[in-house]
């Protein structure tokens, strides 16, 4: 099972209470399921509005279950940002 780092930004960071943490997951969907399990409540609501980068590449509209994670990779959790 790949080990990845999930990094939270802005409102996601505030809701998680940490800037980043390790997870073991084969897909983005699996990683996000684990995030929701570890942080029920506000972070769950924030995730609904987030976009994601996997190893620097935007996930866009791809199904999260189709986005494979690589060992040592990074998932960036990006809530909508105000301003530019």
Task: Summarize the structure in words.
The chain has helices at 11-16, 28-38, 42-47, and strands spanning 3-8, 20-24, 51-54, 57-58, 74-78. By secondary structure, it is of the alpha+beta class. It has a five-stranded mixed beta sheet. The longest helix has 11 residues, at 28-38. It is globular. The mean pLDDT is 95.
Summarize the SSE layout with pairings:
Elements: E1 3-8, H1 11-16, E2 20-24, H2 28-38, H3 42-47, E3 51-54, E4 57-58, E5 74-78
Parallel strand pairs: 1-5
Antiparallel strand pairs: 1-2, 3-4, 3-5
Pfam families: ThiS (PF02597)
Family: Belongs to the MoaD family.
Organism: Streptomyces tuirus
- The coarse silhouette is globular
DSSP helix fraction: 25-40%
Q: Which regions contain 5 or more consecutive residues with pLDDT less than 50?
A: none
- Biggest pleated sheet: 5 strands, mixed
**Which class of secondary structure composition applies to the elements?**
alpha+beta
Spatial strand sequence of the major β-sheet: 2-1-5-3-4
- What's the N-to-C terminus distance? 37 Å
User: What is the H/E order?
Assistant: EHEHHEEE
Structure summarized in a few sentences:
Helix content is 27%, strand content 26%.
Descriptors for this entry?
five-stranded mixed β-sheet, alpha+beta, 84 residues
């Amino acid at each position: 099972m790949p080990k990845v780092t999930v990094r939270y930004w802005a409102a996601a960071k505030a809701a998680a209470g940490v800037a980043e943490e390790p997870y073991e997951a084969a897909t983005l969907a699996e990683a996000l399921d684990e995030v929701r399990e570890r942080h029920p409540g506000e972070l769950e609501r924030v995730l609904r509005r987030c976009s994601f980068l996997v190893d620097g590449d935007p996930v866009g509209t791809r199904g999260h279950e189709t986005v494979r994670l690589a060992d040592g990779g990074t998932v960036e959790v990006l809530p909508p940002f105000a301003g530019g």
